[in-house]
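User: I'm new to structure prediction. If I give you an amino acid sequence, what do you actually give back? Let's try with this one:
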Amino acid sequence: MESNRVAQLALHFVPHIGNFLIKQLISYCGSAEKVFKAPKNKLLKVPGIGDVAANAILKQQPLERARAEFEKAQKDGVKILFHSDKDYPARLKQINDAPSILYIKGVNNLESNKMIGIVGTRNATDYGKSFTSELVKSLKAHKATIVSGLAYGIDIEAHKSAIKNDLPTIGVMAGGINKIYPSAHRKVAEDMQLTGAIITEQSYDRVPDAPKFPARNRIIAGLCDAIIVVEAAYKGGALITANIANDYNRDVFAVPGDLNRKYSEGCNNLIKQNKAHLLTGIQDIEYIMNWDASDQVPKQSVLHLDSFNDQEQSVIETLRDQNEGVHIDKLSWVTQIPVNNLASILLALEFQGHIKSLPGKKYKMN
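Assistant: Good question. You get back a string of structure tokens that encode the predicted 3D arrangement of the chain. For your 366 residues, that looks like this:
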């Protein structure tokens, strides 16, 4: 067990500090391991660190708890992933409040080519469940990974439909990795792990109480290319997820419903307020997300950069590994190519089939 990883985990067990202060401590001391070797007067110089946190670090109790946590994870087949790890999900890493740690159980699939979040009310109607089932079935052609929160109603219908259609599905939890909630969904959670995963930022044995659910929702939004709200009341967790997704510049879709139904009100308002695209079927997703048959299977072609000029190489190198696409203005700033010249280069590369344009003046590798 590598000592610095134990120290990284231990910082999450220090009372009264969160993701920001963890980064502050590591930056100030040089590494997580060095934090636990620092004298108290040095720790107290870190903005935000007081006596309680400093004394907890000096007593080394968080280190003992971290070692026990790693042993549990290893025994249970749980992977502990830190924000600084190379295989931390790229989409999630882009958000400013990304979790500094993830517990993952399953085969993973957090970096699938297409990630779609499906959320909605716990009190789903037959209409909502039926729409969810048919939508997931239609997403099979695109080999999408389905992300949701394991809750009653729309969430569990999305997970079950994904399993039925042989699609990987990710369940994001609000409690510890050993606290499946609700417990009635334990069997589904186990089945999900065969092709997808269950994940959480919470440590072992943490109970999924109310404040943790909005935090859980930001992970759902951050992992996905788009969020789909099937049914939602005027207020609720699904709308929180939709609003967070909008803040993260993710596409949001909402299914319209009967004006007289309580659980259509949230979706109808999202559409009315231009916070979501109206969704009636897979064709709406394909149009907005610029999906077509040609990109249902990721391309494996290898580019030889020496066959491009210097400016083309700069564009290609910038776009590589950017699954969400890059806006033309940002691309111009990074490559230092004027927008007028850049537009011609992008058009030529698109004609050659190397890149593709996305809605909102974004571009990505083909």
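You can read the tokens as a compact description of the fold. Here is one thing that stands out. Residues 6 and 216 are 24 Å apart (CA to CA).
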